[in-house]
Amino acid sequence: MPYIYIVTSHSPASPDAVFAVLLRAATWPKWSPIDSAAVEGDGDPEAPQQVGDVRVFRTGRGAARERIVELVADRHFRYTNEGGPFRSFRGTVDLTPASAGGTDITWSATFEPKLPLSGPFWRWYLTRFMQRMADGLAGYAARTKDRPGSGS
What we know:
Structural class: alpha+beta
Low-confidence stretches: 146-152
Order of helices and strands: EHHEEEEEEH
Distance between the termini: 38 Å
Largest sheet: 7 strands, antiparallel
């Protein structure tokens, strides 16, 4: 049975500034609970990633491998989680220009855990974890949007 989480946040930064932060794996530990980030193969975590890139994020003793599956500049960032506790996992970050300025961020996923009956736990955990991710992304993009060479 698939499960869903949806979290939202708002950034005073423009959609292009928020998108630029999402594309650079090296920024993620700066604005999220993630401890480290790498790109498999010869990928440079400082450079913007592309569709097909696999990024490895470590938090504590856990690691997540995420493949970028779709990018629509300044609008959508979609990925799958490769392995871990999930039979399937498809995440999406949607960026919408806010009427009062800035960007509305919607971070969501549809997932199916490998372990039966663990879905409610994962939905509870991921909703809280991903809210921290969305809020961190919103704040970091706002702080770095006007500084050249800031990774945005």
